[in-house]
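User: I'll paste a sequence; please echo it back and then give the predicted structure.

Assistant: Echoing your sequence first, then the prediction.
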Amino acid sequence: MAHRLQVLTPDDARHFIEKGYVRVKGCVDPALAKKWTDEAYTRLGYDPKDRSTWTKDIVWMDRHNIAAIKDISPKGWAALCDVTGGEDRIDHRIMEIESQHFTTIDSTEWSDAFVVNFKRGEDKPWLPPSPASGGWHKDGSFFRHFLDSREQGLLTIVYWSDVVHKGGGTFVAPDSIKVVANYLADHPEGVDDGDAFGKLIDQCQEFEEITGETGDFIILHPFMLHASSNNHSGNVRFMTNPPVVLREPMNLNRENPADFSLIELATLHALGRDRYDFRPTSPREERWRVIG
């Protein structure tokens, strides 16, 4: 890598390349997490101490508080720069997805657009992560997927509460990156069928439940197949999953190997190549518009 790591250690970088994700701890001030999650209960009209007021098992909230990552999490921003190859490789524009509903993407901001798992599936058996647990997918319903796509440059998770075992933590399949990378390499025309990725979980054998503490920031390769899980813990899980858009598509054939980002190195590792001259054979068809 040409850039110097700011936050990640060499072991962190190696873990991302080989396993497709890295955890960075202490990326959210606990006082800010409490403030925003307390406000979330008020916005929902729920009493945090009265489960009878929790009318929905899981809620996807709109953004209310919004802040630059640099301001509220310098460590988180530095980690993003470490993985992407530098701030200049992150798209700083504000974009609005033109899909079933309008969603704003700004790779430089975090917000309180929480996914709040109050008690989803507590009345059902808890299944460990496996193909049988279901719900596996790759994010990105708003673009045609290519091996080098920039639109879902990274999958990220911010935990705004402690997440214990069986507490609604995200399920991941680390070896899915190899499966998805080879699938996309075999389809240079791109893939529009989002369900096609979920079916690839049957080829995977590595599964993990991502638990954690308030302030944990988990940065995952965009090819990571993942799924939500049921919450049997009695604790409420607050998380956000802000997307990261790259300024340019991944370059898997850089002249200087030191210029590869960790994302590109992880993709090449999954393909078993030192470099790969990928060229899409169909238009990219981005479905968004720049609004700022």
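The longest helix spans residues 30-44. The chain has a mean pLDDT of 93.
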